[in-house]
Write a structure and sequence with these properties.
about 700 residues; seven-stranded mixed sheet; three-stranded parallel sheet; about 20% strand; alpha/beta
Length: about 700
């Protein structure tokens, strides 16, 4: 049979001979969706690799993109590819390996390529990592486009499908670590392997490569630049190889926003921006203005998920304040200067960020402060002080993460682990499990720090309970719209430390309402039971079908905070109100000379909290509207730009308010349930997804009493 000949031009301009049929390529950035979507964003990363590859080879390659595990499982078995490329992150590493194994059985000639940041930094650890996974032929450790094109170029020189793997692995490949035919790891040149002019990568949106992912489940992702100038040791983006920021052109960014907006389904309301420091670059103002214009014209996006910059907060505020639905993320990780120095984060000004708190509030921006518990040098006291300072700075939302030991981070090197005496355990990532067609139960496992030479496990557990209490209570949104914003503002108005509310709740949890005690007991037990000594133990335990059923039932493998927050929000909000309001009143009576006027003011605030947080996720959320009589205009007080005292906002006469949900609010919640499921696990995702100001009820005046 005569072979078809074609020109194949790659990054180095080489010319080769193609095989007769187009090279079949599968690219995947996989998500679990067994009980709920684990990662709900478009596979933009592999979309870029596909568009770059198509720009080089045109019809010589036939590329299919995948997001859902079931889809790629079927495709591998029914119509296996010549090359399979999968993205390697903490949330898909193990399923990737199983998919590679499945492909090896049905097509032993296929080339299996892995890439992504979930990869060790030092060569000895890299070799150890890859030797654990002999199924992997090639690893692309930095950006994937150039290395993947080099792989395809070599594959297209093959005279038959059966020759592809041998031909590709016959020599080192630029920007890749490959496994030779005699099972040795060889390094291609990885220096200067990034694309400086990102417009060289055609848009996978405008090429139509991502059209099938506008499916009413996934949310689109936008990238405007790549790279991070910071070098935090706990982060996979802290490596020197990626510290220079490269950008797409403004025209390209606007074209992608336009394409996304015109193809989005009615039930998807979020846009994800993958930039590592969004808002920090001056040109981000133009991007924000463009998004704002589209929000006004088309009503999308209602919410934007982005990691805002770590420095230059004044510029960030100016850049993003015109956009609706975007939080200002202050990833402080710790407020302790010694800890920040330990993780090479001393170049990020936490003090500057906190000093901007008044300006942030005045701009009407939501703030979220991210903290990591268990960083090098952490103690019980340093974590308490971090929380105290963030609450004092009026952060709307404080999210405390476990410290993960990621393969691509400097903190996970042998030297650092030994230096800080990390005590680590293993656990299943929440919602990240599935059964494959080969009968194998697969799940993602992470290694987390639960103690170190300066923090005991018992202290770690107590701090996690405190973190949970703050997580449930301090879930602010636009200033003044969180369920307990009034409570916290009133406490601050009387110069009482807000942190003392939560610390007292922690120490007095035995006196909480029974339902809340049950939830807190569940949180503690789950925090303990989710931890394992080894990956092998988890693997063996959950291969048993009876134990795997626990994952399906939500008895294991959950996000502890989201799951139990959803439990409270759906079933026990009244009890949580009693716990926090009772604790706050007790604290105020100790710290402030409490009189009848203050009692009346606090009563109005308490009823306001009860009203806006009533029945937010229950099935009856749209059928009942609570009503209370108020002596003070809490809503106007909460949004007062001058922070005047509540005494200045007394109604002229007692006023009855009804707390209601709009039709749009009800639809937004139902749309999210349709995506994530109306289960405890799904509700946790809904709360995470929907801004609290959209979730909460609004007060409506229904009558006034004449004096």
């Amino acid at each position: 049979m005569k072979k078809k000949t074609a020109l194949v031009t790659g990054a180095s301009g080489e010319i080769g001979k193609s095989i007769k049929e187009p090279l079949k390529i599968y690219l995947g950035d996989l998500t679990y969706d067994t009980v709920s979507l684990s990662t709900e964003v478009f596979p933009l990363n592999v979309g870029y690799i596909a568009s770059y590859c198509k720009s080089h080879f045109g019809n010589l390659v036939d590329i299919t993109l995948f997001k859902y595990i079931e889809d790629i499982d079927k495709a591998i078995n029914n119509n296996p590819p010549d090359i399979l490329g999968l993205s390697n992150y903490a949330w898909c590493q193990r399923v990737d390996v199983e998919i590679f194994r499945m492909l090896s059985k049905v097509n032993p000639f296929a080339v299996k390529v892995w890439g992504g940041p979930n990869f060790p930094l030092d060569p000895p650890s890299q070799k150890k990592f890859l030797n654990q996974y002999p199924e992997v032929d090639i690893y692309i450790p930095v950006e994937g486009e150039i290395g993947f094109v080099e792989i395809v170029k070599q594959a297209l020189k093959s005279n038959s499908k059966e020759e592809i793997r041998n031909n590709v692995l016959s020599k080192p490949i630029f920007n890749c670590i490959s496994r030779t035919l005699d099972d040795k790891l060889v390094y291609g040149d990885i220096i200067n392997s990034r694309i400086k002019n990102l417009d060289e990568i055609p848009s996978p949106y405008s090429m139509g490569l991502l059209d099938k992912f506008f499916d009413g489940r996934l949310s689109p992702m936008l990238q405007t630049n790549r790279g991070c100038p910071f070098s935090c040791s706990f982060c996979v983006d802290g490596a020197d190889l990626v510290n220079k920021v490269n950008s797409f052109s403004m025209e390209r960014v606007k074209q992608d926003i336009d394409y996304i907006t015109k193809h989005i389904t009615d039930n998807i309301h979020s846009l994800f921006i993958s930039d590592l420091n969004f808002g920090m670059i001056p040109r981000d103002q133009e991007i924000c203005d463009f998004i704002s214009d589209y929000q006004e014209k088309f009503g999308f996006p209602k919410e934007i998920q982005a990691t805002t910059g770590k420095n230059n907060k004044e510029r960030i505020i100016e850049n993003i304040q015109t956009v609706n639905g975007l939080k200002l993320c202050m990833s402080v990780q710790s407020m302790d200067q010694e800890i920040l120095t330990n993780v090479q984060r001393a170049n990020i000004s936490v003090e500057q960020a906190l000093a901007l708190a008044p300006a942030i509030k005045q701009s009407g921006l939501r703030t979220m402060s991210e903290v990591i518990l268990g960083l090098p040098g952490e103690t019980y006291e340093t974590h308490l002080d971090t929380l105290r300072q963030l609450l004092s700075a009026k952060s709307d939302n404080i999210l405390v993460h476990n410290c993960m030991l990621l393969p691509g981070s400097e903190m996970n090197t042998p030297q650092e682990r030994k230096k800080w005496g990390f005590e680590s355990k293993f656990r299943i990532l929440s919602k990240n499990f599935a059964k494959l067609s080969n009968g194998k139960n697969v799940f993602e496992i992470e290694e987390v720090v639960v103690g170190l030479n300066s923090l005991s496990f018992a202290e770690f557990l107590e701090l996690r309970i405190l973190d949970f209490m703050i997580f449930v209570t301090n879930m602010g949104a636009n200033p003044g719209s969180g369920p307990y914003d009034g409570v916290l503002k009133f406490v601050r108005e009387h110069n009482v430390d807000v942190f003392e509310i939560f610390y007292r709740m922690l120490k007095n949890q035995d006196s909480a309402p029974k339902n809340i005690r049950d939830v807190l007991k569940s949180v503690r037990e789950t925090l303990i039971n989710e931890l394992w000594d080894s990956v092998e133990e988890i693997e063996a335990y959950y291969q048993d079908e009876k134990n795997y059923q626990k994952l399906l039932n939500g008895e294991a493998g959950i996000n502890v905070f989201q799951f139990n927050n959803a439990w409270i929000t759906t079933e026990y909000m009244e009890d949580w109100n009693d716990f926090i309001l009772g604790t706050t009143l007790e604290l105020l009576k100790e710290k402030v000379e409490f009189n009848e006027t203050l009692e009346e003011q606090f009563s109005s605030i308490a009823n306001y909290s009860r009203g806006i947080s009533y029945s937010l996720l229950s099935k009856e959320r749209g059928s009942t509207n609570p009503e209370y009589i108020f002596h003070y205009d809490i809503l106007r007080w909460l949004h007062d730009p001058n922070d005047s005292a509540l005494s200045n906002f007394k109604f002229s006469s007692p006023t009855r308010l009804s707390f209601r949900l709009t039709a749009e609010q009800l639809k937004t919640v139902q749309d999210s349930f349709d995506v994530f499921g109306d289960t405890k696990i799904g509700r946790g995702q809904v709360i995470k997804k929907i801004p609290i100001d959209i979730l909460c009820r609004s007060p409506v005046i229904i009558s006034k009493t004449k004096n």
